[in-house]
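2-hydroxyhepta-2,4-diene-1,7-dioate isomerase: structure tokens wanted.
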Amino acid sequence: MRIARFAAGDEVGFGLVETDTDSGEDFIARLSGHPLLGDIKLTGERAALADVRLLSPVLPTKVVCIGKNYAEHVAEMKEITGESTEEPVVFLKPSTAVSGPNDPIFHPSVSERVDFEGEMAIVISRPCREVPRERVKDVIFGYTVANDVTARDLQKKDKQWTRAKGFDSFCPIGPWITTGLSIEEAQDLEVTTTVDGETRQNGRTSQFIHDIPGIISYVSSFMTLLPGDVVLTGTPAGVGPVSIGQEVSVTVQGLGTISNRVVARD
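Answer:
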């Protein structure tokens, strides 16, 4: 299933994104309740996908990010972030960084270089801690697309990543959550980032240094994950700067595309 969070007029809700068999057009079928609470059902209402505004599919308490998870990206960022490590590199983005499809990425005036980082993201289904590898599938609600936007010059200047990664709008997520994928399927998807239509990143989740069970097991060994929390899995090689006015699009095979334009903050 593809589960989206959307706004229609003054109302915000959840719905299933489906395709009309006759017209071939996508529509959204409204759900009652909250998908992560399990008590949902179709209301019978539907609308063309083009007539609603897609929002970030979840409002996480935290966004947990994995750095240095593609060998070629480690090599290209060696001067700033150093060598790869035996254990996953973990950092956090605040919930206030989260935005949705087509929302603007605000370019902070204090940064001279803002980079895109296209990634696949995992959405957690229930409270969990110290999850063994073999149980990781039981705590994954689904998968989505994310952009780990980074003020690269501030990352280098600060020698840690909180400010560089944490600006408002620096974590677009969407366009929906795709459920029903096995870990094995999610572990071999193409990740592509384009800027104004030009391909800048192209990798596969099969290139992860730390796989999905390893990531969730490691993070949950020291941090309780809550329903709706989002785990970013790392970005492939090819990261680079975007300028005000440019549009960044991140696509993960089978999960969809998010596009966001870079704008100046007033």
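The mean pLDDT is 94. The chain has six helices and 20 strands.

Cheers.
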